[in-house]
Structure formats: C-alpha cells, structure tokens
Amino acid sequence: LPVPGRHSLEVAMNKDEEMRAKQMAAMQAGQDSELSKMQEQEQKRQEMEERKRVMIRQILEPDALERLNRVGLVKPEKRQQLEAVLLNLAQSGQIQEKMSDGALIQIIEKVDAQRSTTSSVRIQRKRRD
C-alpha cells in the first residue's frame, strides 16, 4: 500500500539530489576549464622558451653557448639576464654574426659590472663595548 505524502518526499529528495548533481557538475566544469587554461599557459611558456633557445643558438658559437649553459648551471638568474641582453642586442641589430666565446665573456663582464654597482654586500660586525 502506498503511504500518502511519501511520493512528494521522494520527489523533493530527487530535486535536491538533482540540484546537488548540477552544482557538482558546474564545479567540475569550472575546474576543468581552469586546468585547461593552466595547461595552455604552460604550453605557451614552453613554446616561448624554445623560441628563445633557438635564437640564442643562432646568435652564439658552440663554445660560447657552452659557456652560457655552464653559467646557467651555477646561476640560473644570471643566465636569464645574459639571454635577455643577447636577445636585445640581436633584435637591435648590434650582433651581425655569431658571437664568439671572447665576445660573450665581455658581455658577461659588463653585466657583472652593472650588477656590482647596483648591489653590494656590507658586513657589519657586532662590537663589544
């Protein structure tokens, strides 16, 4: 025998479950779109890095490229700074042919000179009175 009022309770529960399912689906779709955006940004960043690597390879001779890679192993931020300088020089037309190791050393020295004037280390010692 059907119980009166039970049918309306089941319908109400089904509607609540349906709303929850819709909310969960919307949240899942939002997360999926966020994930795809992040993957797309990462892919664009990797493509830019690859283009930069190709340009650097075209600018530098093999020994200079090896030196730049060794600098990057020790100080990655310095390598990024050097790459930016090299790309700027190439885009402005100041680099006409492949750069030798000696020319790269000169650029490294210039960058080091700029860095040393902008940042310096001071050692303060505690005094005993």
TrEMBL record:
Pfam families: dsDNA_bind. It comes from the Eukaryota. Residues 7-21, 34-50 have a biased composition (Basic and acidic residues). One of its GO terms (molecular function) is DNA binding. InterPro entries: PDCD5-like, PDCD5-like_sf. Belongs to the PDCD5 family. One of its GO terms (cellular component) is cytosol. This is Programmed cell death protein 5. It comes from Alexandrium andersonii. Residues 1-50 are annotated as: Disordered.
